[in-house]
Design a protein that fits this description.
Elements (H helix, E strand, L loop, with lengths): L15 E3 L10 E4 L2 E7 L10 E2 L15 E5 L1
Parallel strand pairs: 1-3
Antiparallel strand pairs: 1-4, 2-3, 2-5
Length: 74
């Protein structure tokens, strides 16, 4: 499992997401399922409309889900 890092932040549960910075600017607040996440990481395989939610451990991972996403602030 990858360890997210943008050089400034450590990944936090229910907080950190990896995004394509061409779609969601770094630092943006994003609402998913009632939780506000912060775009603090970019992933090499994160392209287009894909978001990777940091869940801490592989046991916590839940695979691919299709969810409505709202960008709260950029």
């Amino acid at each position: 499992m990858a360890k997210p890092c943008d050089g400034e932040h450590k990944a936090r549960l229910n907080h950190t997401i990896a995004v394509d910075p061409n779609v969601i600017p770094p630092g943006s607040k994003v609402l998913i399922d009632g939780i506000v996440y912060t775009a603090e990481d970019v992933g090499g395989s994160i392209k287009g409309n894909i978001i990777d939610i940091w869940v801490g451990t592989e046991q916590n991972s839940f695979g691919v889900k299709y969810k409505e996403v709202r960008i709260m602030e950029k």
